[in-house]
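Extended Data, panel c. Modelled sequence:
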Amino acid sequence: MPRVKYFKTDENAPTPLTFEIKRKVRFDELDPLGIMWHGNYASFFEEARVALGGHYGIGYLDFANNKTSIPLKKFYVDFMAPLEFNKTYTIKAILHYNPAARLDFEYEIYDEENRLMTTACSVHLMLDMGHNTVLVAKPEFFENFCKKWREGSLNA
């Protein structure tokens, strides 16, 4: 199955940032067919996204401490194969650079044999404390982060 390209890649954009976590499917996450219920995939992606944000200093609390929230605008999932009970999967979060005040995440889930099971994407907008969409300037801390990212000077 050919891979879906969720985001356009600008040749001048910095390399996407990635972070991986491992997660086991719990019994309470199964549907009546014995596979992970589709609604539970979002929590897998969120765990990987939170880990990436924490690693790079751009997590939910970093934005909140800078008077910005990053609500979900778009969420899309492509299922290739079901996740099974008690099996461990690798969830990769990939942050793509975007010059706009938004976060473009892509996700991949791999099984223990490194087979691609699921791909997804999410787009998060930035809102100020009045719940207004940030359109003109990114929060200063995030603009500083993006500058380091563009320069290739982030601590990985």
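The chain has a mean pLDDT of 95. This feature is highlighted in the accompanying rendering.
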